[in-house]
Recover the amino acids of this structure.
């Protein structure tokens, strides 16, 4: 049985955080629920400072300033494992991300392990212990938490910290730390990027099939849906399903009956039917000169397949010369992001990931040489 302390008062949290700021490194994890919500609902925070495992109950705490100070203390390294969603939780709840942060899944990948190495597999490899993961789908908002839940949560940080310290030491010894830090910075950057509501229509999967007039309607619909989802903390498809959004833009219904014929279900009609019809009229009224440009389906663009193949081959060559796997260097999504940015298919304020950080050091020259031909 692992020992832990349950933190549920402001005083306890303050004492816990004071201790955490006295050490060089801590392990962090979160448990949350995200089934029907746009933002994750925080259920528990786990913190291990090398002496004490603290299970912090966010449903009881009111003064979070001491914890925010831990998250932003540059003298305390925060270790997470596969922490992308945890970063989102911290950003949404506290407005900050852990700094500095190192992700053990990323560290392990740079040291020759699978790029998506699960926590249980990592613990088994390093300690021989088989973790019980049966509580991974539990309701972390229900109270009281069971002892089994608390043991599960405590294990996530008690085993994480010593493994993280070993990986960190190995990364330094093998000269990999700078690239690891670069990749962790990218993880943080990804979570800080938010979709501009006026551009949400471009992420609707079949938007490329619509005319500029239909896209104007879709733009109003998608902007409204995203704003509504954020304001009411609802998953976007629990507001209105994407398929109905697209069909509404495509067929411009003028009555609730027509909306129903397009497949709108009861709640969509009851709560949002009138709004959808109003947005259709607004889209229809957009001046011709202000209509959105057609959305292009990247795989249908001439020379796309040829360009993709050449970029993929360049990545393969860099992989062979650098020792980093093709999977780590460039995913299909990242290659498509680069092509989309090069052809200016959609507005973007961020640099393509293949030209950023450690990947940029290795890939910018060979990839730009290819892109210059298209």
């Amino acid at each position: 049985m692992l020992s832990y302390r349950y933190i549920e008062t402001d005083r306890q949290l303050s004492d816990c955080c004071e201790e955490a700021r006295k050490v060089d490194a801590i392990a962090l994890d979160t448990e949350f629920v995200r089934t029907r919500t746009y933002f994750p609902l925080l259920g528990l925070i786990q913190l291990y400072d090398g002496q004490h495992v603290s299970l912090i109950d966010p449903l009881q705490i009111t003064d979070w300033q001491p914890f925010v100070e831990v998250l932003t203390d540059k003298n305390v390294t925060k270790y997470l494992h596969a922490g992308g969603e945890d970063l989102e939780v911290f950003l949404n709840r506290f407005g900050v991300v852990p700094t500095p942060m190192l992700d053990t899944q990323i560290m392990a990948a740079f040291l020759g392990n699978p790029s998506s190495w699960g926590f249980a597999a990592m613990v088994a490899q390093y300690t021989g212990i088989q973790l019980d993961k049966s509580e991974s789908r539990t309701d972390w908002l229900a109270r009281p938490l069971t002892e089994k839940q608390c043991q599960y949560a405590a294990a996530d940080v008690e085993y994480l910290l010593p493994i993280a310290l070993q990986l960190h030491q190995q990364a330094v010894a093998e000269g990999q730390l700078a690239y690891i830090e670069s990749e962790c910075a990218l993880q943080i950057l990804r979570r800080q990027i938010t979709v501009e509501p006026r551009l949400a229509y471009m992420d609707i999967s079949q938007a490329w099939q619509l005319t500029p007039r239909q896209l104007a309607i879709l733009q109003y619909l998608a902007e409204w849906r995203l704003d509504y989802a954020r304001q009411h903390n609802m998953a976007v498809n629990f507001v209105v399903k994407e398929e109905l959004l697209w069909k509404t833009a495509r067929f411009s219904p003028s009555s609730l009956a027509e909306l129903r014929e397009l497949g709108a279900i009861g709640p969509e009609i009851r709560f949002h039917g009138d709004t959808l019809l109003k947005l259709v009229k607004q889209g229809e009224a957009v001046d011709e000169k202000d209509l959105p440009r057609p959305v292009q389906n990247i795989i249908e663009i001439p020379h796309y397949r040829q360009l993709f193949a050449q970029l993929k081959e360049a990545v393969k060559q860099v992989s062979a010369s650098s020792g980093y796997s093709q999977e780590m260097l460039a995913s299909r999504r990242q290659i498509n992001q680069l092509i989309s940015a090069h052809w200016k298919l959609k507005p973007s304020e961020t640099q393509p990931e293949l030209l950023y950080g450690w990947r940029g050091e290795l890939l910018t020259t060979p990839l730009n040489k290819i892109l210059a031909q298209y």
